[in-house]
Amino acid sequence: MVPLLLLLLVSSHHQHGSEAESSHISKIHHSSVKEQNGVQNSQHERVMSVSEEGMIHSPDFPNTYPRNTVLVWRLVAISENARIQLTFDKRFGLEDAEDGICKYDYVEIEEPIGGMVLGRWCGSQAVPGPQLSKGNQIRIRFTSDEYFPSNPGFCIHYSLFLQQRSAEPEVPPVLPHTLQSIEELNEAVAGFSTVEELMKYLEPERWQLDMENLYKPTWHTLGKSFFQTKKGKGVVDLNLLREEVRLYSCTSRNFSVSLREELQRTDAIFWPSCLLVKRCGGNCACCAHRCYDCQCVPTKVCRKYHEVLMLRHRPGSHGLQKALTDVPLEHHEECGCVCRDGLD
């Protein structure tokens, strides 16, 4: 009985000692997580609260940065209405691109919400231009592989960009449709989405009666005979007709593009040879503004990277060099009709 009791006491002491040691290790680990200037170290990304000017840079800037490094910063403005302005230091140099694409060492900026990449940069020939976040957050990612680190790396200065609310423009009073010219009335009619809204605008007092009259049977005379034409909402839906016109007007839609033509590469073959991209298309025959010569143009553009197989002739060899590569393609997310005169 004595050895058994002694064994239980030893086991209990060892268990309590492990719990104390575990608690001590947890405290050490927690204390090793530092928070300075709003920066909280994390295994995946560093979250930085932006309330004033500051900077982030590659390790050892302006000297050679280390190999095999992945660093991610997420900048968060203290106000939801604020934006974040990024400006690159003129001292900029990372490993050069291959075939015009930053594949190995690069710095990349993206929107955390939606994951839209604003740009990816490497090399040292041109310093990236200033960047402005769409919302109150922005993410910066730095990656280096195990070969050919360069210098000086990069340094990005950040600051808050407060949006100034412009004074509300004075809206001119809308004339009754009876006093409008045919051009003014045409422009006003084009802005309504449904027949009901249009009728309310034209006849506020009796629009319901006009709606009923639109679909009532009508009688026509042909010689001495009369015949009735039936109308019904189930036969013709003017709202659907308008929607069909909208779909075939200026919108962002899928287009198939040839990679060799799009990238202007005559020295390589890509597989697949064509990719689908979003590009503006359709007609602008029904411009809401008074313009007789409209053009469908992109109003919001983003660049997306697509992984494809690239084949090239290897110098001094009869075989083909095969490699997976990322190709950047422009996508038009939003489109609009613009007067051609305004584009010149």
What does this structure look like?
- By secondary structure, this protein is of the alpha+beta class.
- It folds into 3 domains: 39-162, Spermadhesin, CUB domain (Jelly Rolls, Sandwich), CATH 2.60.120; 181-244, no CATH class; 250-343, Cystine Knot Cytokines, subunit B (Ribbon).
- Helices cover 22% and strands 37% of the residues.
- The chain contains 7 helices and 18 strands.
- The chain has helices at residues 2-32, 182-190, 195-202, 207-214, 238-247, 259-263, 340-343, and strands at 35-36, 39-40, 46-50, 54-57, 69-77, 82-88, 106-110, 117-121, 131-132, 137-144, 155-162, 218-222, 225-229, 251-258, 269-271, 274-281, 294-313, 320-339.
- A 7-stranded mixed beta sheet has the order 1-2-3-5-10-7-8, with no helix packed on it. The protein has a 4-stranded antiparallel beta sheet with strand order 4-11-6-9, with no helix packed on it.
- A hairpin with a 6-residue loop joins strand 7 and strand 8.
- Helix 3 (195-202) packs across helix 4.
- It is extended and about 80 Å long.
- 13% of the residues are buried.
- GO terms for molecular function: growth factor activity; platelet-derived growth factor receptor binding.
